[in-house]
Amino acid sequence: MEQDTIYRAIEALKKTSGILGGFREKGPLDGTLEMDINGHKYGFVIEVKQELRTYQLEQIRKNFHRYENYMLVANRIFPKIKEEIRTLGIPYLEANGNIFLKKEGQFLFVDTQKPLEPEKNKGNRAFTKTGLKVLFYLLQHKEAIHLPQRVLAEKTDVALGNIPQVIEGLKETGFLIPLNNKSYVWENRELLLDRWVIEYATVLRPKLRKERFVLKRNWKEIQFDDQKTVWGAEPAADILTNHLRPEKFLIYTKETRMELIKNYGLMPDKNGEVEVLEMFWNNKTDKTALPILIYADLITEGGKRNKETAEKIYNEYIKPNF
Fold first, then answer.
1. Which of 70, 108, 278, 302 has its CA 20 to 30 A from that of 101?
2. Is residue 225 part of a domain?
3. How far apart are alpha carbons 308 and 315 in whole angstroms?
4. 138-167 burial, b if ≥16 CB within 10 A, otherwise e?
5. What confidence score (pLDDT) does residue 121 get?
């Protein structure tokens, strides 16, 4: 799918601006792109995305500073995100031929082509709703990949038939290297976490939404039944780090609407400050959502203070186990 996007972008660029481009698979990230602009040849390290979202910008910014000749290639970029990328000075090329490039005296800006419809991700079962639940567990327990598949299915609360499909998906994407029929070695788990955060926000999280509520008292005074309900996102981050005063509230729960009203005094309100999502894992003693999930929600929400706190949680709670 990445290569299809690249070749479409190169062909469209030729039509919109007359610039010739050539793609090479080898190189960091997703390969390299060579361009001939007014008789001068330029080489770019490219990162390919399908439909770019706001919560992906931080990683793109990091890669832009990490690689001297970085360029983002995307199937589609929404106008507000394109404006932000241009403000940061990050070169980009869309599959429809729109381009932004400011480099060594060259300035290219084409934004006249209509956006292409996003391509559907057909394939990898590791990043479906069910697969993401399995990955959530495996990202926390990397040795669990060697458990019998039946045991892994029980721990992740998914049907047994899904487990081999998830494993095959991880092998296809290069995150899991088989040593033999029963043993594997993980590869690029940090990159897998980045992928999980993106897919969680777009695939799994929207399916977990219940409704919104109003808080009737100080959130810190509420005592949840930890096996059924926990804080997520900003309040959970504050509990872990004492570094973030919550402005938005998120709860993960297995309790019903009436139980939330009766047990904690939450009142349903479509404009309420508390968002409630279904708890999709088996919680035991944790007072908050698990660190990987808190990290994902903070990155998805965005904003400077959330990103700073997410980085703190990553360094203190996630990275040591990777």
1. 302
2. yes
3. 11
4. bbbeeeebebeeeebbebbebeeebbebbb
5. 47
Tokens representing 14?
A: 């030729």
Contact 301, 233 (CB under 8 A): yes
Residue 9 sits in the same domain as residue 59: yes
CA 244 to each of CA 26, 57, 237, 275, 287: distance values in angstroms, whole numbers, following the listed order: 42, 21, 7, 18, 17
Strands (E), the chain: 20-24, 32-37, 40-51, 70-76, 92-94, 99-103, 106-110, 176-178, 184-186, 209-214, 229-232, 249-253, 267-268, 274-278
Rg of the chain, C-alpha, whole Å: 22
Assign residue 67 a region (left: φ > 0; alpha: ψ between -120 and 50; beta: otherwise). beta
- Taking residue 185's Cβ as centre, other Cβ atoms within 10 Å add up to 9
Same domain, 178 and 209: no
Mean pLDDT of 7-29: 85
- Note whether 175 and 214 are same-domain residues: no
The per-residue pLDDT for range 188-212, each reduced to its tens digit, is 898 899 889 988 988 999 999 889 9
> Quick check: 105 pLDDT over 80?
no
Backbone angles phi, psi at 95, to 5 degrees: -65, -15
Please determine, for residue 2, whether its predicted confidence score (pLDDT) is greater than 90: no
Note whether 180 and 213 are same-domain residues.
no
Q: Tell me the three state secondary structure of residue 147.
A: coil
Nearest 5 degrees, angle CA 269-CA 273-CA 274? Answer: 85
Mean pLDDT of 43-66: 86
Write out pLDDT tens, residues 217-251. Answer: 899 999 999 889 999 999 999 999 998 899 899 99
Domain harbouring 149, CATH code: 1.10.10
pTM: 0.68
Asked, for residue 119, whether it belongs to a domain, the answer is: no
Q: 139 in a domain, yes or no?
A: yes
Q: Give the C-alpha separation, 106 to 208, whole Å.
A: 47
Which structural domain range is residue 284 located in? 205-321
Using CA atoms, how far apart are residues 14 and 19, in angstroms rounded to an integer? 5
Mean pLDDT over 86-90 rounds to: 94
